[in-house]
Amino acid sequence: MALRVAPCSVSIAAGSLACVTGGNASQARQGRLSFDAVSIARPARSVAVRAAESNVDQKTLSGVVFEPFREVQSDAFLLPSESNKSLARQRFDQSCESAINDQINVEYNVSYIYHALFAYFDRDNVALPGFAKYFKEASEEEREHAEKLMTYQNKRGGRVKLNTIVNPISEFDNSEKGDALHAMELALSLEKLTMEKLYCLHKVAEDAHDVQLTDYIESEFLSEQVEAIKKVSEYVAQLRRIGMDGHGIYHFDRILGEEGA
């Protein structure tokens, strides 16, 4: 079976479109479609749309999502010309800078107390070298923490300001608990106090929306501080079992001196 297709011709007149499918002129006139309005309005719109689409396509193809040479001119990225101003400082609030200096002071004060404990247990009439070694290492560790914070302060473009250190006591003997238990309970309280101060520093960083500082505190200090509190808590529990027994304290001191050796 053959399919016959009538010849079709398209003619464009001024303001009209005619499609002739083999009928007469009258039918052709009836088939005319007016496109005056479309032909006038569409070209301007289509040019604007094509221009916008072209810009999107260019960004998509090039991968550029920002304009660095223009954006770097904003006030946030202008470098200070004064020689006494930090070039590295960025999004570092004054409250965070002050809080870091406060924490540096905390670490140095705790280090100073631990150094006093070292000096006490190193006396010839006390003669507990294990305790002396433990507190000397604890003092050095706290000083290292202070120095880490000082280094961090400089990295962020802050200024380190060292504050006054409180004079520690030099006698640690206690009539009810003895010197060993009394000193270790003091150490546990100091570790918990340091942890509380770190929480305060973290809160200042949170309030200032300083995500880098909060991450630094969490990764460099908090986990280590939790471990330290657990370790000293165990020492206190063991010394409470020993009580004032000199022989038991002597053996505890030997074990304490061997740890980390």
From TrEMBL:
Sites where the protein binds Fe cation 1: E107, H145, E191, Q225
Superkingdom classification of source: Eukaryota
Pfam families per record: Ferritin
Protein name: Ferritin
GO terms, molecular function: ferric iron binding; ferrous iron binding; ferroxidase activity
Family in the record: Belongs to the ferritin family.
Annotated binding of Fe cation 2, by residue: E142
Gene3D superfamilies, A to Z: 1.20.1260.10
Function (record text): Stores iron in a soluble, non-toxic, readily available form. Important for iron homeostasis. Iron is taken up in the ferrous form and deposited as ferric hydroxides after oxidation. Stores iron in a soluble, non-toxic, readily available form. Important for iron homeostasis. Has ferroxidase activity. Iron is taken up in the ferrous form and deposited as ferric hydroxides after oxidation.
Class of enzymatic activity (EC top level): oxidoreductase
Record carries keyword Metal-binding: yes
E.C. numbers: 1.16.3.1
Gene Ontology annotations for the cellular component aspect, listed alphabetically: chloroplast; cytoplasm
Reactions performed catalytically: 4 Fe(2+) + O2 + 4 H(+) = 4 Fe(3+) + 2 H2O
Localisation per UniProt entry: Plastid, Chloroplast
GO BP terms: intracellular iron ion homeostasis; iron ion transport; response to oxidative stress
Complexes and interactors: Oligomer of 24 subunits. There are two types of subunits: L (light) chain and H (heavy) chain. The major chain can be light or heavy, depending on the species and tissue type. The functional molecule forms a roughly spherical shell with a diameter of 12 nm and contains a central cavity into which the insoluble mineral iron core is deposited.
Predominant cellular place of this UniProt entry's protein: plastid
Keywords, comma-separated and alphabetical: Chloroplast, Iron, Iron storage, Metal-binding, Oxidoreductase, Plastid, Transit peptide
Residue span(s) of domain Ferritin-like diiron: 90-243
